Each structure stands twice: as structure tokens, then as C-alpha cells.
Amino acid sequence: MTPYYELRHLVGFEETTVVGNVYFVNYMRWQGKCRELFLLENAPDVLENFGEELILFTTKVECELFAELALFDEVSIRMRLEDLTQTQIEFGFDYVKLRKDGVQELVARGRQRAACVSGQGAAARPAKIPESLRRALAPYAQAPAAPNGGPRAPEAGQAVAAAVRNG
């Protein structure tokens, strides 16, 4: 079994800017979609009363871009478990461009922290992570190794990201 849950996606017109690269907000949308499909496939019982008895409230989301994606690029969004407490889950995401020549290129890396909450409004309170969700997450707790044929390190993209950060 792979140490990550994978969502494969083909970039469409509606996800790109006028110059043809993927608009940054889509990386966060893909994180949400990946998390939702993981729940649907691996912990469907958690979704039965979702929104009524349990809410996964996103408390933090981030994404660092190393290289650009463009129209019709195929991307693998790879979600893994970074941290698990009694009431919170932190996911890590690798965005890997799947090139036609077989090369896998890491183009972005993100994180998302979610808190389990029961109740709504003023009655909202922290809730324990359901046991079925804990079991479903367990196989994804190991950090992915860098096996041969894995995603290529983003050398040039890291230089661009550093230049942007340093002004």
C-alpha cells in the first residue's frame, strides 16, 4: 500500500489564468476535494451525520508553489497524515506533475489542519475524532520515502520561491 491517498486530476480551462497557468486558489480546492473523496472512500460512516453531529472545521491551510501547472497538465495530489491529536488532524499534500515522458515533478507542497467539532454556532465544541476515521488514516501516517522513480526535486522552482520570499 502506498503511504499516501492519491487524487489524480487533469487541469481544465476554468482553473487557469489568462496567461495559462493554474490560479493559486485551485491548489486549496484540490486539497478539499482530496480530503472529501478520502472520507467517502475510506470512512463513509463519518459522512452519515456530517454537518449535524460532526464538522471538520479547517483551521489552517497553506501551499508553497515550486513550479507552475498549466492547461491539460495531469497532477497527482497526494495526501498523507502529518499529525493526529484527540480532536485535530493535520494533512500534508504533495502536488506532483505527471509528465508524458514518465517523469514526476513536485510542483507544490501544502498542509491543512482540521478540527473535529460537534454542534453549531454558540453550541459548537471540540469533538473526538471518530474511531473509524482514525483507522482509515492509520496507513497514511508514514512520511513517503523518496524511492527511485519518485517525484523529482523542484530545484529551479525552489530558487524562484526563495527569490519571491526574499523580495
What does this structure look like?
The structure is a single chain. Strands 1, 2, 3, 4, 5 and 6 form a six-stranded antiparallel sheet that branches. The relative contact order is 0.21. The model is unreliable at 144-150 and 152-167 (pLDDT under 50). The protein is elongated and about 50 Å long. It is an alpha+beta fold and 167 residues long. The chain is built from four helices and six strands, in the order E-H-H-E-E-E-E-E-H-H. It has one domain (5-143): Hotdog Thioesterase (Thiol Ester Dehydrase, Chain A, Roll), CATH 3.10.129. Strand 3 (74-84) and strand 4 form a beta hairpin. 24% of the residues lie in helices and 34% in strands.
Could you provide a short overview of the structure?
The protein has one domain: Roll (Thiol Ester Dehydrase, Chain A).
Q: Write down the Rg.
A: 17 Å
Unreliable spans? 144-150, 152-167
The SSE string, one letter per element, is EHHEEEEEHH
Mean pLDDT: 86
Helical segment tally? 4
Tell me about the biggest sheet? 6 strands, antiparallel
Domain count: the total is 1
Shape: elongated
| Percentage of residues assigned to helices | 10-25%
Beta-strand segment tally: 6
The CATH topology assignment is Thiol Ester Dehydrase, Chain A
Q: For this structure, what is the CATH homologous superfamily?
A: Hotdog Thioesterase
Structural class: alpha+beta
What is the terminal-to-terminal distance? 42 Å
Oligomer: single chain
CATH class: Alpha Beta
What percentage of amino acids are in beta strands?
Answer: 25-35%
User: What is the annotated CATH architecture?
Assistant: Roll
Pfam families: 4HBT_2
Organism: Kibdelosporangium phytohabitans
InterPro entries: HotDog_dom_sf (IPR029069)
Region (Disordered): 140-167
